[in-house]
Amino acid sequence: MLNVSLRSQLQTYLRNIRRPVELIVSQGGSQESAEMLTMLNEIASLTDLVTVIEEQQGDERKPSFSIGRAGEKPGIQFAATPTGPEFSSLVLAILQVGGHPVIADRTTIEQIRTLESNYYFETYISLSCASCVDVVQALNMMTVINPQIHNITIDGGLFQNEVSARDISVVPTIYMNGELFGEGRSNFKDLGARLHDIEMSMRAALHAAGKP
């Protein structure tokens, strides 16, 4: 799937990985699943620090895969084969999980680092959506900064039943902990500020209720 030029560029980027990364694949037996596995195996062939692991049971969404540090629970998932604009999201996620630093607004990074609640994001995208990339990369960066955060990027074309059930008409559409969180273009700083405000509101409510 990767042409010679792309493989060469990717091999250069992957030299920035500092610790082992696991790509844990949950297959579905479809053509899309086979394409996903082929692409991930090609990426892993370019560095000894990336390993593909195929799970027999795996995630309920198939095909999908997670990106995590070896021996740790992964925070980033793709229920998609990230091609087109989203290929950069995949590469960046592998690099950052592998120890390449997150480069972003420092205030927002610190806000994300101090979050204490659990946040589970489901981000619905189209692989042709240019504005989806910023949202996917922002949420993935947050999972690297804070293990309380999890993000799964979902290709609406592969999971049309979910799109219909949730009446999704705009991409990206973000759900947080099962509730609609946002639609359309956003960025790391804006999303981080919203999360920080939510966390502060929850802490204030708990304090008012006399809970630690």
UniProtKB/TrEMBL annotation:
This is Alkyl hydroperoxide reductase. It comes from the Bacteria. The lineage of its organism: Bacteria, Pseudomonadati, Pseudomonadota, Betaproteobacteria, Burkholderiales. InterPro entries: AhpF_NTD_N, Thioredoxin-like_sf.
